[in-house]
Protein 1
Amino acid sequence: MLQHLPPETLFRDQLETPIGTMLVITDKQERLRALDWREYEDRMHRLLQLHAKKKNREYELQAAPLPAAIHKALDAYFAGNFVPVNDIPVYTTGTVFQQAVWRALRNIPAGTTLSYSALAKNLGRPKAVRAVGTANGANPVGIVIPCHRVIGMDGSMAGYGGGLARKRWLLAHEAAGLSP
């Protein structure tokens, strides 16, 4: 018999950035659960719903200020210091494969890119290029799990949930921040 759990309370805030309003969802443990752009709020809710279903639990959102450490790390990122976002705790409930892809994404250094094919090879699954792309697209925590750093094998700007203009900006911002 399935046990009915009360909805999980998540907290919503927004952050103004140089490339638009970012929506940030956290939990009671001050872990990042979702991060997306205002105009993609519907997609963010769909991803949250998918992840909630995997836990057999609904969620409800309450407005609340971002935990100070997350706010400070995101501000640092947009100011050109990319290291603090690496320490933001994240909680997602993807498949085992998605989790592996998302962990691998966090290992791509700021200012660098990796092709979907190279990422699949790094995971020991060289033929899983499409699956890597699908997992990349299901990432609910952009920037912190830096899916924008994945490009086409030919160097093209393959899709990004926040739009290709943002992807270009993020990559240029990271490259500029690492220049001497």
Protein 2
Amino acid sequence: MKLSKKIFENLKKKNINFITIDGITCSGKSLFANLLKDNLKKKFKYVSILSKDLFLFPRSKRIKITKKIKNSKFNQNNLHYDLKKLKILLNFLAGKSKSKTLILKNLYDRKSGKNNLKLKINYIRNRLIIFEGIYVNQDIKLIKKPILRVLLIEKVYNSLSRKIQRIRDRQISIQSVVTEFVKIHLQSFKKYLLNNNFDISFIDQNRKFQKIKDGRNKQLKEIISFLKKHMY
């Protein structure tokens, strides 16, 4: 993926050292983050990717939560993520800690579905952080430094299809995945989009990302159209 130099050439001039990458589930956030890092590593000495998935609660806990859901009045960010632990890391990266090294344990491993990862990170003043995940625009509000907020647009049906393909075993059924997607994820993300703005949007076209205007409203229309047709 080649990104226009005009899009990111002023990052240093604006003293931006945080880039957030947000989008509905399975919209290509991790892929985009890695491609972006490859594009920027020649311009920045230190570029690091922070994945919000590290702060997911154990998979077994999230499955139990999904099975208990009876209506859509839930905030997925609070339901599925250890936001207290994430706040510790964000404060550290913002330079609000006296220590120069931070160690976090029991983080989520996407491959195994267990919380057995350990993260050790050193504070570097001029590091560029690419923070990718759902609702990261909301999490990053405690950071006072300049931030570039990126939104990835994806067709809702493509997102759901990829989510179903990620099912690992029989602990959760396709129906439960669809229920979570419609009643929790889309409802939460719709409210989130209504209350947050983004600096730039990209659309995923066959895993190639192109800049798009008015991305937030276009994604909202996609979600609302889907919910009108399939909400139950």
Protein 3
Amino acid sequence: MAITQDFQRLLDYMNTVIVGQEDLVRKLIIALLCNGHLLVEGAPGLAKTKAIKMLSCLIEAKEQRIQFTPDLLPSDITGSDVYRHETHQFYFQKGPIFNNLILADEINRAPAKVQSALLEAMGERQVTVGNTTYKLPDLFMVMATQNPIEQEGTYVLPEAQLDRFLFYVKISYPTAEAERKILKLIRQEEKQEPLPEFKKISERAIMAARQDILDVYMSPEIEEYIIQLVMATRDPSPYGEDLSKYIGFGVSPRGTIALDIAARAAAWLNGRDYVAPEDLKSIVFDTLRHRLLPSFEAKAVGVTSEQLLNTLLKRVPMV
């Protein structure tokens, strides 16, 4: 349980620096523990960039921010072959994707070819340039952000890429009390007051934590509930005609796997060696909202994937 305490300490420390975004911080750490990626949607100025930068400072990892723009090229991310005049040979110059923690800022502003390059990196943990494939670091995670306000000049992420994200987290503005804490924290930073010391978590400890999570017990009842919930998204007819009309496409098997590992990680981070129903409840929306696609009829009347999930959770019984 010593490793668990290290990550609980990490969670508590980050929440003192990233004020008012406890859910984002928690899902960021769970994604790290699950070897997954996360997509974050929120207005500017909500500490999305600061969260992953702070995480990179508290673990043994290198962080790189990539600002996605419409004129970005795949080689700007992956790197490219560069000719060296002295040796009359080409050598591969690695791009920013060859870091541990990647912040893909405003990912929906990148064109299709860039999305394709990032999709290979996220899914296969490798980069292909020409005829050569290069392996990415063992510790590799992408946190992508989307701005929901400005949609001009953006590209909708394809479903195949959305399915690669473990979580799709939506964040909102902090409360009034959190705003007061933010002002106090900013004043401390401007005075250059040092933060409390934190012993970095090693990459080895992260890998050991991932192995521990695999041993977290999940009861047959909760496992069956996950399966029935996923199957209900594919064939919702037994749970109501309205769901049949409003669900266009159900959750893929990758969604089932994501629910399983994320629930285990949530339980482990809570200090338990078994999955409780509240662990599953805490991650189900962020795990499935981008995998459950509303039909055209649902979009026409304003029914969202969150509303469909909420209905499913009420109608699919826990066996």
Protein 4
Amino acid sequence: MRLAVIADIHGNLEAFRAVLADIDGADIDQIISLGDNIGYGAESEAVMALIRERGIPSILGNHELVVKSPRFYRWFNPKVRKTLQSTFAGLSERTVADIRRMAPYRVAWGCRFVHGFPPKSVVLYLYQMSEKNICRAFARIDEARCFIGHTHDLALIRILDETLAHLPFSQGVCPLAPEGRYLINVGSVGQPRDGDNRAKYVIWDESESSIEVRYVPYDFEAAAAKILSAGYPEYFAARLR
């Protein structure tokens, strides 16, 4: 089994198409999205239509959560809130129905998938969690590998005998030891915040017990121009550069 795990596309159709082209050349059996497919970028509806066309299962991100439960608009600052309201107003009825069916987590292929933090938080960030919190979270789940997004930054953490190790995690293949359990932050397709503007995603190779991080170049200037043309805040575009 070779599984491509993507997250945080954020309405960036250029980045998403580039990542799908890369996936199509990587002998992948399945793709799963960790949510936040929408918001910030100018083409949320087109991204969701492509997810639907490709049959990619997606779990709930915090941006999708707002569509399901508008009271969570207060989670964002006023400028972002106004932009998101405009973005979400442009979603089709079919897309809204798809979002309403999204679950906060999924267990499949011996792995757990959640947008924010295990076992099933859509809104908690990894950087908010102490080592004790992380160990406690893994004590509550059965899976040896948990994939998350939300921070827009790559991270690989091994938990072994209630001891944490933050492992190097960047472009290339990283073998996973049979002992220990792993928390894997897959970075962001549409809005990386790690100082490298290429789109990021990972491939879990079950037979090789390895994680490969893929960096994919795309036309970020075109994506940024669409954000500005939509009248969204300039810093949404600046984050792509």
